[in-house]
């Protein structure tokens, strides 16, 4: 290649890259309103954003890839945890973990009820942005501390099960769905005995469900283990599992919208998988 040819190659290559970059930039801005659902940006969302910045949440947490990466990414926290959990957690984070055992340092910010409501609405707006699969891995937030178990062990336990390969078997499909995001069941529930995350461990749920139904304290309508698991997914407040980090005021912290977000077939697949956990 001669000097003039090399120069022309560099000029043409630069021009093509510039055109491609400009085209992608224009296309991105064209799609931003739809991807970010900016029409849903209410005054309360903006107020929640102000709370986020006022209390320097980004000094530890990350949103949409921006933040300190010191504490969990909260881009999808609102759909993974639900508003009831978030409000209770923000009132007093120390109730959800033993700091001396899991070494978490989330401070109590003494937020007002209005500030908490605004922040939860803001996080919910963020959670519904189409992030094209970002962040690439789900958050790892442990719930109740486990004697003899450190934070790393708890996190490993929550991610030990990888989504199963595509299959026509309802159990395999349920296992894959359990580990998928959404619905991100494994972000809150472990299937390892004694490993309680944001929700109780589901180890042995196929056996414990029958025991729960037979207990006089059970207030739900299920008649067998499969019905109990189905009820727990679509109506989590029908029966409250004892534990200060699982419910408050007669309502479960588990999101109550899975009956709408999941198809009946998906719910049946989850039930098929969870009933195998003996």
UniProtKB/TrEMBL annotation:
Protein name: Nitric-oxide reductase subunit C
Originating organism: Noviherbaspirillum autotrophicum
GO terms of molecular function: electron transfer activity; heme binding; metal ion binding
Record's keyword terms, sorted: Electron transport, Heme, Iron, Metal-binding, Transport
Cited InterPro entries: Cyt_c-like_dom, Cyt_c-like_dom_sf, Cytochrome_c550/c551-like
Organism phylogeny: Bacteria, Pseudomonadati, Pseudomonadota, Betaproteobacteria, Burkholderiales
PANTHER family: CYTOCHROME C-553-LIKE
Positions of the Cytochrome c domain: 43-127, 169-278
Gene: norC
Pfam families with a match to the protein in the record: Cytochrom_C
């Amino acid at each position: 290649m001669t000097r003039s040819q090399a120069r022309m190659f560099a000029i043409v290559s630069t021009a093509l890259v510039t055109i491609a970059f400009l085209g992608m930039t224009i296309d991105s801005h064209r799609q931003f309103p739809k991807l970010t659902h900016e029409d849903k940006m209410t005054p309360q969302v903006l107020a929640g954003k102000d709370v986020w910045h006022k209390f320097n949440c980004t000094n530890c947490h990350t949103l949409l890839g921006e933040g300190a990466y010191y504490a969990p990414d909260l881009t999808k926290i609102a759909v993974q945890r639900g508003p009831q959990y978030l409000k209770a957690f923000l009132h007093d984070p120390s109730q959800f973990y033993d700091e001396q055992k899991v070494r978490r340092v989330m401070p109590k910010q003494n937020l007002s009820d209005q500030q908490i409501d605004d922040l939860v609405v803001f996080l919910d707006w963020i959670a519904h942005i189409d992030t094209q699969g970002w962040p690439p891995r789900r958050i790892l937030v442990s719930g109740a501390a486990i004697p003899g178990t450190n934070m790393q062990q708890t996190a490993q336990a929550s991610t030990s099960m990888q989504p199963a390969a595509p299959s026509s078997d309802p159990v395999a499909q349920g296992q894959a769905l359990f580990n998928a995001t959404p619905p991100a069941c494994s972000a809150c529930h472990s299937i390892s005995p004694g490993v309680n995350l944001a929700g109780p461990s589901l180890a042995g749920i196929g056996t414990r469900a029958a025991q729960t139904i037979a207990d006089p304290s059970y207030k739900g309508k299920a008649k067998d283990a499969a019905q109990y698991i189905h009820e727990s997914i679509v109506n989590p407040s029908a029966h409250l599992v004892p534990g200060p980090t699982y419910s408050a005021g007669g309502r479960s912290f588990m999101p109550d919208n899975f009956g709408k977000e999941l198809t009946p077939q998906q719910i049946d697949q989850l039930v098929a998988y969870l009933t195998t956990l003996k």
